[in-house]
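Morning F.,

Quick status update on the modeling queue. The single chain you submitted on Monday has been processed. Sequence for confirmation:
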Amino acid sequence: MPQQIRLDFEVDDLDEAEALLLELGATKPEYQPGGHRRRIFTGPAGHPFCLTRG
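Structure tokens below.
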């Protein structure tokens, strides 16, 4: 199934949200083009999504 949309989620604490997502099965690619304000992840099914600092 082709990718339909990419979701971006705004969070208060990127480190806390990242730890939770990794625990839940997300993966974090080594290349992170968003600097300190954005982190890119892929879900267990391989679909990308981003966290941004709120």
